[in-house]
Structure formats: structure tokens, C-alpha cells
Specification:
This protein is an alpha/beta fold. The protein has one domain: Rossmann fold (3-Layer(aba) Sandwich), CATH 3.40.50. It has nine helices and seven strands. It has helices spanning 17-28, 40-52, 67-81, 107-117, 119-134, 153-174, 191-197, 200-206, 220-227, and strands spanning 8-12, 32-37, 56-61, 86-89, 138-143, 178-185, 238-241. It has a seven-stranded parallel beta sheet, with helices on both faces. Helix 1 (17-28) packs parallel to helix 2 (40-52), helix 1 (17-28) crosses helix 9 and helix 3 runs parallel beside helix 5 (119-134). The longest helix has 22 residues, at 153-174. The termini are far apart. The structure holds 1,4-dihydronicotinamide adenine dinucleotide. 1,4-dihydronicotinamide adenine dinucleotide binds next to helix 1 and helix 7.
Length: 249
């Protein structure tokens, strides 16, 4: 028996990077994984790889900033797997994001960015939670970042929002036996990070307690714990998986 045996888990942004590692890691623990992403080509490939390795996966195209798109995803997942037990809100605009200040960033870009990186987690949660409740409860994991604790512009602001959302939703959904937690990764070696940070990540590593970049697979253990019944009394927590980049007193 896997630690997530037969649980149906939706992972947004699962076509690459950390989301792909989540999808593959959860499938290896017996979950039926929904690879949910805007990127159809890469998402379908991830689902096919999981199935080729003996796991169960379904690719569903979704835009997490759209309530209609989220509702269509839920319909398709329930038709295929019969329900939903867990949701990981990992999708974000990250690798190709613009760098600008809060006081100068173009309004339309800012609103689009926040609609994905902040509102997206709420849009998906609102669409999915009734199905989790029907199963008698389950778990939602939001993807935060250590950027929430550091000076990092509107990207960090969105992640601070994710932390607040996690705590608020933990209270709103706890009565329905739905737990809501977050993972705050430190600098993690994905294609998106290489595009976005380049050599700057080498400097970041010097200040970590563990002197290496994170790997997408480093996030899987914490996420598996938070999705599994092992964490049945853990909710509203932001778990840093960051090589010791940050700590909270
Ligand atoms: P990535 O850019 O490789 O993956 C993001 C995925 O989200 C992509 O597959 C993309 O197609 C998808 N996506 C973007 N907008 C979408 C939308 N509107 N609807 C559905 N899917 C959409 O990023 P990476 O590096 O794998 O990061 C994943 C998550 O982890 C993000 O939330 C990021 O902010 C967070 N994070 C990453 C860190 C890192 O160092 N890589 C550190 C801390 C947090």
C-alpha cells in the first residue's frame, strides 16, 4: 500500500518542474493523479510517463485563473475517477515573469499575474472543495515560497497572500474535515528558476544552511505527508522546505 493509495489528487502546474515531481511522486505512492496545466503538450507527456511507469494519471487542461475552467476540470475528474481527495495549488507565472516594482508595474500585467499566482489557488479551491467534502474530508496544499518572507516584489506579495489564504481557508474548511497547508520551497533547480535567476541562484546557495539548490524531488516528501492521513491534525501550517534559507521564530 502506498502512502496515498487510491486517493485522487489534482496537481495544478504539473506539466513541468516541481508540479511534475509532485505528480510522479504521488503516483508512486498509489495516488490517481490529475495533471492539470495550461500546457497540453507537456502535461499529456507527464501523464503518459506516469501510466508507462504503472501509475494512474489523467491530463486535464485548465487555466487556474478561470472559475469556468476550474468547474470543467472538476466535472471531468469526477466523471473519470468518481471524486477528489486532494488538491495541490502549484501553478504560477514564474519562469517568464516580468521584473518590476509594485509602484511602477503595468496594472494589466499585475492583475493578470495576481489572478494566476494568488487568486488561482482560491478559484481552484472553491471549485474542488465540495468534492473533497463529499468524500468525508481531505487535504489541500498550496505552493508558497520563501519569497513570502523576503523582499521579492509582487511575486513575494502573491506568496504572502497564499500564506494568508492557507490560514483563512484552514478555518473555513476545517469543519468539513478539509485540511489546508502550504509548502514554502527555497531556491529550487527547475527550468523556470534557471530562466529567471540564472547565476544569481549560485549566490543564494552560499547563504543556505545546506549548501545546494533544492531539487523538485526535495518537495515531494513534505507534500506527501500533508496530503496523507499521517498529517490528520495538521492544518493552517506553512512548511518551509528550503535548505535552511529561512526560519520563523
Ligand atoms: P514552472 O514555471 O516550471 O511551472 C509552473 C507550471 O504552472 C507550468 O507548467 C505552467 O504551464 C503552469 N501554469 C502557469 N500558469 C497557469 C495557469 N493559469 N493555469 C494552469 N497552469 C498554469 O515553475 P516551478 O519552478 O516548477 O515552480 C512551481 C511552483 O513552485 C510555483 O508556484 C512557484 O512559484 C513555486 N516555487 C518555485 C520555486 C523554485 O525555485 N523553482 C521556489 C519557491 C516556490
Amino acid at each position: 500500500m502506498g502512502r496515498l493509495q487510491d486517493k485522487v489528487i489534482v496537481v495544478t502546474g504539473a506539466a513541468q518542474g516541481i508540479g511534475e515531481a509532485y505528480a510522479k511522486g504521488f503516483a508512486a505512492q498509489g495516488a490517481k493523479v490529475v495533471v492539470a496545466d495550461l500546457n497540453t503538450e507537456k502535461g499529456e507527456l507527464v501523464a503518459k510517463q506516469i501510466e508507462a511507469d504503472g501509475g494512474s494519471a489523467l491530463f486535464v487542461s485548465v487555466d487556474v485563473s478561470s472559475a469556468e475552467s476550474a468547474a470543467a476540470l472538476v466535472e471531468q475528474v469526477v466523471a473519470t475517477y468518481g471524486g477528489i481527495d486532494g488538491l495541490v495549488n502549484n501553478a504560477a507565472i514564474y519562469g517568464a515573469m516580468q521584473f518590476d516594482l509594485l509602484i511602477t508595474v503595468d496594472w494589466d500585467y499585475y492583475k493578470k499575474f495576481m489572478s494566476v499566482n494568488f487568486d488561482g489557488a482560491l478559484v481552484m479551491t472553491r471549485a474542488v472543495y465540495p468534492e473533497i467534502a463529499k468524500r468525508g474530508g481531505g487535504s489541500i496544499v498550496n505552493q508558497s515560497s520563501t519569497a513570502a518572507y523576503l523582499y521579492s516584489g509582487f511575486y513575494g506579495l502573491a506568496k504572502s497572500g497564499i500564506n494568508g489564504l492557507t490560514q483563512q481557508l484552514a478555518h473555513e474548511l476545517g469543519g468539513q474535515r478539509i485540511r489546508v497547508n502550504a509548502i514554502a520551497p527555497g531556491p529550487t533547480d527547475t527550468e523556470a528558476t534557471r530562466t529567471q535567476a540564472g547565476d544569481a541562484s549560485k549566490e543564494l546557495v552560499k547563504n543556505l544552511a545546506i549548501k545546494r539548490m533544492g531539487k523538485p524531488e526535495d518537495m515531494v516528501g513534505a507534500a506527501t505527508f500533508l496530503l496523507s492521513d499521517e498529517s490528520s491534525w495538521v492544518t493552517g501550517q506553512i512548511v518551509a522546505v528550503d535548505g535552511g534559507q529561512t526560519f520563523r521564530p
